[in-house]
Structure formats: C-alpha cells, structure tokens
Amino acid sequence: LKLKLKAALYGTERGLRASSETRAEVVELITQLEARNPTPAPTEALTLLNGKWILAYTSFSQLFPLLGSGRLQALVKVDEISQTIDSENFAVQNCIKFSGPLASTSVSTNAKFEIRSPKRVQIKFEEGIIGTPQLTDSIVLPEKFELFGQNIDLSPLSGIFTSIENAASSVAKTISGQPPLKIPFRSESAGSWLLTTYLDAELRISRGDGSSIFVLFKEGSALSI
C-alpha cells in the first residue's frame, strides 16, 4: 500500500498538480493505510515521531499559492517542505526551502507541541525565521545559443559575465555572514492542532485544520528516495 501511495503521488508536486481522479485514489490508499496503522497511539511512540519528515503530499489549500505555477515558478522553485520533530524538547520546526536563478533561502517556523490525546498534539508557534540568502557564485554562460534559427556567438560577452560572477561571489560572501532574521509570534492564536493517523519508521500521515491531509516520508527512508 505504501508503494502504491508513493507511485500515486509521483508528478503531483506535493498535491498541487493532482487531478481529481488522483486525489480520490490517494484518499482511498490513505484510508486503507489508516485502517492498518501499526502505531495506534503515536504520541506514546515519540521515538518514531522524532526526526525530519519530508512533505510528499497535502490537500492543505493554503499551501497551493506558495507551490503555485504561473510566472513565479520560472523564477522561484520550492525545493523542499519539511517538518522536524524534537520529541525530547517537544519542539517542531516547519521549513520551506526555495531556490532561484541567483540565490537560495529558507523560511521556517519554530513551535512547541503539547500532547492532548493518543493521536493529537496541539502546536503553538513561537517564531518565524527567514534564512540568510545563499547567492550562487558561478554563472554558467554557453558559448553559443540558437535564436530564431540563427547561431548567436556569446564569447565576446565572456569578460562582462566574468565581472558579474566576481561581483556576485563578493556579495555572496558578505550576505552569507549575516544571521537569519527571526520574527517572534506574539498572538495567542498562532497555533494549530495535528492528528497523526498513520505512523511507522518511514511514513507519517496526519490530518489537520479544515480536514487537510499531510503525507510525509522520513528523511533517508526508502520511500523518500
């Protein structure tokens, strides 16, 4: 069932591109897995919850604008969405890694969680963190490219791009030395709950606000490869 679920998620871009037929298939597989959950009380098995989990699929519509297509997709790419659980300190970090043509960065939230039932935890967000942008220090320029059937020679521009590359490298070293920006959450409403309905060493299925579903693979597991 887990392999069938992984196959069904292929090409859906974490659910963004999933057709209604694919969503129905995913929900059916999730329901079957939940009925065979080997860990009926996930909050009593914190060692299994512990570690980094990579988001493979979600029905949480508020994430879709972030993952969205359109003009921004060519400029900004979401490389990874993850959730890291520190069960010893009852801490959770949600992280989104972005990359663009000239830089990569991340946005994350730090939170604490409280156990409310054998399956449910209450999450209280404490701060948001905007990571320091890491600029690329290498600009790859092809010697030639074709435009409207004509071969364009770019070799005369190599000196200009070398200067740009040197400047980008200098800026990258300066920016990368700056600390990330931390933004505290002071609102009492900055929180949510999460219900874990399936858990083993490589797969976690959770349900959250608004009947949203989250499918996560454990980093380094066979499912995550």
List keywords for this structure.
38% strand, 12 strands, transit peptide, 5 helices, PAP, 225 residues, eight-stranded antiparallel beta barrel, 23% helix, alpha+beta
Describe the structure concisely for a colleague.
The protein has 225 residues and is an alpha+beta fold. Helix content is 23%, strand content 38%. About 2% of the residues have low confidence.
What global shape is seen?
A: globular
Low-confidence stretches: 145-149
Assign the structural class, choosing from mainly alpha, mainly beta, alpha/beta, alpha+beta, or little secondary structure: alpha+beta
End-to-end separation in angstroms reads 17 Å
- Strand numbers in spatial order across the main sheet: 1-2-3-4-5-10-11-12
Order of helical and strand elements: HHHEHEEEEEEEHEEEE
Number of helices: 5
Average pLDDT figure: 83
